[in-house]
Amino acid sequence: xxxxxxxxxxxxxxxxxxxxxxxxxxxxxxxxxxxxxxxxxxxxxxxxxxxxxxxxxxxxxxxxxxxxxxxxxxxxxxxxxxxxxxxxxxxxxxxxxxxx
Length: 100
Hints:
Largest sheet: 3 strands, antiparallel
Mean pLDDT: 88
Structural class: alpha+beta
Order of helices and strands: EEEH
Radius of gyration: 18 Å
Strand order of the largest sheet: 1-2-3
Number of helices: 1
Number of strands: 3
Strand content: 25-35%
Distance between the termini: 28 Å
């Protein structure tokens, strides 16, 4: 089965008082998920906005990725996916790639 899809991602960054917040919105066309991340600059550290951006965005991506995994596993459970059943060999089905 061949398929092509386009998902839209919007990234918003906010910085105030040495705190950077990131909001990452994913629109799949049928679902919307939002990841959030925060980075705080210690008062003793040099304030480098790019570092705050990188940390906040990476944390928002991690949050979004965790939500996507939960959604996928929920969809698999709803379909009673064989790869979720006990007794199946490791490395088979949808879960053949590390989930960490």
